[in-house]
Design brief:
Elements (H helix, E strand, L loop, with lengths): L7 E6 L1 H18 L6 E6 L3 H8 L7 E8 L12 E4 L9 E9 L3 H11 L5 E10 L11 E6 L4 E2 L15 E4 L3
Parallel strand pairs: 2-3, 2-5, 5-6, 6-7
Antiparallel strand pairs: 1-9, 3-4, 8-9
The structure holds inosinic acid and magnesium ion.
Length: about 180
């Protein structure tokens, strides 16, 4: 395997810290959705690892679906332009939807998604995000299930990439530009 370690900076959150938080979020969702069957909507690609871990910490019969949106391309700054690359397969009418996001940076992706999904008439719509960057939100979305607040640096690991690399790291680290 190629050694990309030169781009991996300080570890911000360890595997254990992340897993404990995911368990906690899963327990809260389990309590809040008793008697319901929540539909988890994962935002690809970054959320796929969090989504897989979260799903297995929710002690309810969940449905899952994915959306792919793009706001970045290969750059490390948000352009504010959100493009739907893959839409949902499931009709949201009557569903209790939880948007599962990897990271909230500007919040523009989420702001767009919330409006877009709300317009499809779900019974309820909440947001669950594992990482939230401090002080960068241009659009303020109420996030009911929050993981960690992190400094506003570019980060990699736990599903998050830099030009498609490092998604498989089990921890969250700062990205070091060469
Ligand atoms: P926002 O629209 O600015 O909130 O950007 C959200 C999306 O950009 C996230 O869902 C990620 O896919 C990506 N993103 C934002 N910050 C980072 C980062 O530090 N590392 C990797 N991807 C990021
Ligand atoms: Mg994303």
């Amino acid at each position: 395997m190629t050694d990309h370690s030169s781009n991996i900076g300080n570890v911000l959150l360890t595997e254990e810290q992340i897993q404990n938080k995911v368990k906690e979020l899963g327990q809260r969702i389990t309590q809040d959705y008793q008697g319901k069957r929540p539909l988890l909507v994962g935002v690809l690609k970054g959320a796929f690892i969090f989504m897989a871990d979260l799903l297995r910490e929710i002690d309810l019969d969940c449905e899952v679906d994915f959306m792919a949106v793009s706001s970045y391309g290969a750059a490390t700054r948000s352009s504010g332009v959100v493009r739907i690359i893959k839409d949902l397969d499931i009709d949201l009418q009557g569903k209790d939807v939880i948007i599962v996001e990897d990271i909230i940076d500007s919040g523009l992706t989420l702001s767009y998604l919330r409006k877009n999904l709300q317009a499809r008439n779900p019974d309820s719509l909440e947001i669950c995000a594992i990482f939230i960057k401090e002080g960068l939100q241009k659009a303020n979305e109420p996030v009911k299930y929050e993981g960690f607040h992190i400094p506003p640096d570019f980060v990699i690991g736990y599903g998050l990439d830099a030009a498609e690399k490092y998604r498989g790291l089990k921890y969250l680290a700062q990205y070091v530009q060469e």
